[in-house]
């Protein structure tokens, strides 16, 4: 089964092949101690492979956690350009606030800034380029959910979602699934009803 051999797949949020096709489980050649529990194996080319079952489980946990909050209580920050299209569509479909691009330090901590904002939970696409947002959230006691690749440190993260947080296809799939699960858990998507927006709609050119 390509890079992932799972004898007992159990129930996934989406078909296993969908995760594998976009490389959501393909990490980097760099590995931190924080991400070791999520690594399934190291390929012959040195790339770390994340455990797809754990990815799926964490996406489900993150979806249920975020679904406890109103859209205006959530802030998504994404400095990485490959994530701009998916986070913007996620925002359009759910009403969740997003910052696609540079996060200005102090936005969550300094009420004197013209773009000061308050939030109850923060989701970052990568805790390294989005580190200023993470630091501000921690300073304000705001829980942080983060997509973490094998090279990420997670000592300031409350909920790690292990995945390839760099590829445009993997980020598109993550936010497509998150959109469906968030709307479903909030009762805005009926049981059995499919999201009208497709994975292609979330994928950058």
Structural class: alpha/beta
For the residues shown, what is the average pLDDT? 94
The proportion of residues forming helix, as a percent range, comes to: 25-40%
Major sheet: order of its strands?
Answer: 4-3-5-6-7
Q: Architecture in CATH?
A: 3-Layer(aba) Sandwich
Proportion of beta-strand residues: 5-15%
State the oligomer: single chain
Q: What's the total number of strands?
A: 7
What is the straight-line distance between the termini? 28 Å
So what's the CATH class? Alpha Beta
Count of discrete structural domains: 1
Q: What sequence of helices (H) and strands (E) makes up the elements?
A: HEEHEHEEHEEHH
Task: Provide a descriptive summary of the structure in words.
This protein has 205 residues and is α/β, with parallel strands linked by helices. Helices cover 31% and strands 14% of the residues. The chain contains 6 helices and 7 strands; from the N terminus they run H-E-E-H-E-H-E-E-H-E-E-H-H. Strand 3 (74-78), helix 3 (84-94) and strand 4 form a beta-alpha-beta unit. Helix 2 packs across helix 5. The relative contact order is 0.19. Residues 1-9 have low confidence and may be disordered.
Question: What are the defining features of this structure?
Answer:
6 helices, 14% strand, alpha/beta, 5-stranded parallel sheet, two-stranded antiparallel ribbon, 205 residues, Rossmann fold
């Amino acid at each position: 089964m390509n890079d992932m051999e799972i004898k007992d797949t159990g129930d996934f949020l989406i078909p296993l092949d969908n995760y594998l096709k976009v490389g959501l489980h393909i990490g980097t050649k760099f590995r931190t101690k924080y991400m070791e529990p999520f690594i399934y194996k190291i390929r012959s080319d040195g790339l770390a492979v994340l455990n797809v079952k754990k990815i799926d489980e964490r996406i489900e946990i993150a979806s249920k956690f975020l679904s406890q909050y109103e859209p205006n209580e959530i802030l998504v920050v994404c400095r990485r350009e490959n994530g701009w299209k998916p986070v913007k569509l996620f925002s359009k479909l759910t009403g969740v606030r997003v910052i696609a691009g540079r996060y200005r330090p102090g936005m969550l901590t300094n009420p004197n800034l013209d773009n000061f904002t308050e939030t109850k939970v923060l989701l970052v696409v990568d805790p390294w380029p989005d580190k200023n947002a993470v630091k501000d959230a921690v300073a304000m006691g705001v829980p942080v959910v983060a997509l973490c690749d094998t090279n990420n440190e997670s000592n300031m993260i409350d909920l790690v979602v292990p995945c390839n947080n760099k590829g445009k296809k993997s980020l598109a799939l993550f936010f497509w699934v998150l959109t469906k699960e968030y709307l479903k858990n909030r009762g805005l998507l009926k049981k059995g009803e499919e999201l009208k927006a497709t994975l292609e709609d979330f994928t950058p050119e």
